Amino acid sequence: MTAPLTPPPPPHEHSAQGSWQPPAAGPAAPGSQHAEYAGHGWYGQDGPGMKTELREAAVIAVAVALSGLLLGVLWWWLAPHVPLVGDVVEKNWVVYLKDTEGEQGIGVDGTFTLLGLAFGAVSALVVFLLRRRGGVPLVVGLALGGLLGSLLAWRVGVWLGPAEDVIAHARAVGRGVTFDAPLKLGAKGALLAWPLAALVLHLGLMALFGPRDPEPEFAAGPYQEPSAANGR
Q: For 94-118, what is each residue's pLDDT tens digit?
C-alpha cells in the first residue's frame, strides 16, 4: 500500500498569514541610491519644486508690497487731521499745535496700525486660498511683502498729505490761520502690524485647514478564531 502524498503548500500561504518577507535584492550599483534621491530633490541641489516655490514667493512678495499703495491712500484719507497755527514772534515764524490736549497724533498712528492689521489679514487669506500647500519660501515672501507694503504706504501717505515744510505752509496761509500738519508716523512699530498679522493668520489657517500628511498604512493578516484545542 502506498502512503498518501502531502499536497504542497499554496504559493501565497505566507502572505495570507500576514508574514512579510523582504524581496531578495542584489548589490546596488554605486551611487544609484544617491542619484535616485537627488532626482527627487530630497537632498543635494534644489530641485525644480524648490525653484517653483521661490518664484511663487517672489511674485507674492511683489504683489503684497504693491498693495501698500492702497494702504497709503486709505491712511491719508482716514487719518485724523492735526491742526496747527502759525504766528510771528520777534519777526520769526513759529508753529504750534492749536489743540495741545488733542489726540489726533495718536489717532494717526492708530489708523495706520488698524489698516495694517486689516491688510495683513486679507493678504494672508488670499495667499492661503491661492496656495494651500504653504512652505517656508511662501511664508517668507508674505512677511517680506507685508513689510515692504507698510514702508510704501507710509511714504505714499506722507507724500499725499499736507506739505512737510510747516513754516512755509504757515506763511502761505497767514498768521493765526489754522492748517493741517503733515502726516507723521510717530510709532514706527506700526510698520510691523501688517507682516505680523499676515504671519499669525496664515500659520493659523495652515494649522486648521492646511493639507495633512497621509496616515501610514500597516498590512494586517486575516483574523483567525482561536481553535478549541488552543483554548484548553
A: 887 887 777 888 999 999 999 999 9
Tell me the pLDDT of the chain averaged across its residues: 78
CB 174 within 8 A of CB 87: no
Cα angle vertex 99, ends 97, 103, to 5°? 100
Residue 82 has φ and ψ, to the nearest 5°, of -100, 110
Task: For cell 493659523, name the residue.
Answer: 204
User: What's the longest Cα–Cα distance across the chain?
Assistant: 140
204-213 pLDDT tens trace: 998 888 776 6
What letters, b where the CB count within 10 A reaches 16 and e where it falls short, cover 111-149? bbbebbbebbbbbbebbbeebeebbebbbebbbbbbbbb
* Of 133 and 153, the one with more pLDDT: 153
- One-letter identity of residue 154: W
Under DSSP, is residue 215 helix (H, G, I), strand (E, B) or coil?
A: coil
Q: Say how far apart CA 202 and CA 121 lie, in whole Å.
A: 8
> Helix, strand or coil for residue 167?
helix
Q: Report the pLDDT averaged over residues 83-90.
A: 85
What is the pLDDT confidence band of residue 220, given thresholds at 50, 70 and 90?
low
Non-local (6+) Cβ contacts of 144 within 8 A are 61, 65, 195
Q: Is 101 left (phi over 0), alpha (psi -120 to 50) or beta?
A: alpha
* Domain range annotation of the chain: 63-74+107-162+182-210
